[in-house]
Amino acid sequence: MRMQRANRDKAEVAMSPLIDAVFLLLIFFLVATMLKKDDKDIDITPPESRSAVKLPPDDDIVVLGVDAEGGLFWEGQPASANQFHQRLRDVAVRNPGQRLRLDADAQTPFYRVAEVLDMCQFRGLTNVGIRTYDDRYNRR
Fold it and tell me: What global pTM score does this model have?
């Protein structure tokens, strides 16, 4: 005697959960890439200081730099003195209380550091700090 098979539904893959998972991964990677911070540091050896005030990191700080040869850097990118003046003017117009951080190599001639500080003072920017060596920060 022949037995008939019961009609079985074909196996299906539910697409809704798969699409949801793909969208969640897409959103996760988009958010993760937006959280990446730009590297504003330049390759220098900062001077040491025994009495430095430790301030918490700030994402809204503008980083100025001077390397050992006296080259100027704005947010980690090389800049000329004219570009420096223009950008400082723009910052002073937009936010006169803007925090600035000066990264200068320990071998930088002092007159070059004084020039950068003079540029800031000329534009009315007085909230300037100078980065010094820190064991935790400079462990690279």
Answer: 0.61
